[in-house]
Amino acid sequence: MTRSRYRSTILLMAMAYFASDAVSAEESLKVDIETPKGWRTETLSLPTGFAKDMKLTGFEEVRFAPGMFRPDAEDFFTYCFVFCLPGQNPPDEKTLTAELLKYYRGLAVAVTRRSGIDVKPDSFTLTITPVKDSKKKSRAVMTWLEPFATQKPQTLNLEIESVLESSIKGCLLKIAVSPKPSDAEVWKPMRKMLKAAKVVTTETP
User: What percent of the chain has pLDDT over 90?
Assistant: First the structure.
């Protein structure tokens, strides 16, 4: 298989996998995110099908960088997402750590299930550090096995912000993810998207 065909196959498999958890486009509630050209979009229900033991409920709005599933790309495994959590308070550090680990462990196990790879999800780690002088923002570092393209150990950096949202009597969790350091260019479009992300409700007849 040529490199271009391999990339296409990985991309199709990944997007088809995320699409399997997609929620209906007819929902009366959504998160509006102004998305740059070339970024792919997806909307998933929470809990997701690959992490049914999650306690957070609602939906997830995802934006994938153009090189998300290409290991040689500058923006490989770079993406951002918003958890929309109606009727729920922002999770504390312990709860958020547990929920994100369920999410990523479930994702890795589900994607590699047929490949015979020994994932060892219990070895994944996530360390959250609050941002100084901010009650809403934190940073995190996660170690896991990247399941889509390389199937090798990977360290991810996360930027997390919890925002109370009165229109849903709940909160939004805005999260950006990349293996790149925080001063890399790949973070700029994600920060812009997440800063402007907002809940939009539509009236039902």
Answer: 79
